[in-house]
From TrEMBL:
Every HTH merR-type domain range: 12-81
Name by which UniProt lists this protein: Transcriptional regulator
Flavoprotein recorded as keyword: no
Claim: Transcription is one of the keywords in the record: yes
Top-level taxon: Bacteria
Chain segments annotated as transmembrane: none
Keyword tags: DNA-binding, Repressor, Transcription, Transcription regulation
Species: Saliterribacillus persicus
UniProt cross-references to InterPro entries, sorted A to Z: DNA-bd_dom_put_sf (IPR009061), MerR-type_HTH_dom (IPR000551), MerR_fam (IPR047057)
GO MF: DNA binding; DNA-binding transcription factor activity
Length: 107
């Protein structure tokens, strides 16, 4: 069975609606995509599609920019968080494999 993304992860919102929801201009949203801070999907005709999670991310980015944080710093923070999450997932996977190998049950 294929993983069905939650409503927050489904990319269904157009850039115009995202602009209205976030208060950002379409140009700002495209700029954040260029800086690899947001990753919309493309519809068959090339239109960008965003998720509610993307909207939340854009609001977070806008708030950080208002505080004077540069886009480079925001991207570095995102990469650090991603690496930390991957490390945690590898650790949990390894722990699960060890527990299964030695028959350790979680209580």
């Amino acid at each position: 069975m294929a993983d069905i993304p939650s409503y927050k992860q489904r990319k269904v919102i157009t850039i115009g609606v995202v602009s209205e929801l976030t208060g950002l201009s379409e140009r700002q949203i495209r700029y954040y995509e260029e800086r690899k801070l947001i990753f919309p999907e493309r519809a068959p005709k090339g239109n960008r599609k965003y998720s509610f999670a993307d909207v939340e991310q854009l609001i977070d980015i806008a708030n950080k920019r208002e505080e004077g944080v540069q886009t480079y710093e925001i991207r570095q923070d995102m990469l650090r968080a991603e690496r930390k999450k991957e490390k945690r997932m590898r650790r949990d996977l390894l722990r699960g494999e060890i527990n299964a190998r030695f028959g350790i049950q979680k209580e």
